[in-house]
Write a structure and sequence with these properties.
The chain has strands at residues 12-17, 40-46, 62-65, 71-75, 78-84, 88-91. By secondary structure, the chain is mainly beta. It has one domain (12-20, 36-91): Roll (10 Kd Chaperonin, Protein Cpn10, Chain O). Strands 4-5-1-2-3-6 form a 6-stranded antiparallel sheet, with no helix packed on it. It starts with 11 loop residues before the first strand and ends with a strand. The relative contact order is 0.30. The mean pLDDT is 86.
Amino acid sequence: MSEIKIKPLADRVLVKPMEAEEKTSSGIIIPDSAQEKPQSGTVVAVGTGTADLKMEVKVGDTVLYGKFSGTEISVEGDDFLIMSQADILAVL
């Protein structure tokens, strides 16, 4: 992946979601319509924080976030989520 040209503002974080599971552990292929939306990803860019809130995550962290968190965006063919740091539940 090339350099990301998006710089999140304030307490926003840009996350590259993990790929959805396409096969079960027993080898059954899961159709696209039945795949679970991933709830973890890798941080690719972070904002500077605010006067009241410092950034706890950094680029490269693998994070766990809520199922319906963030806004989906597509940049140069890659899909990302942009969300508030408060939407991140944990750093893995």
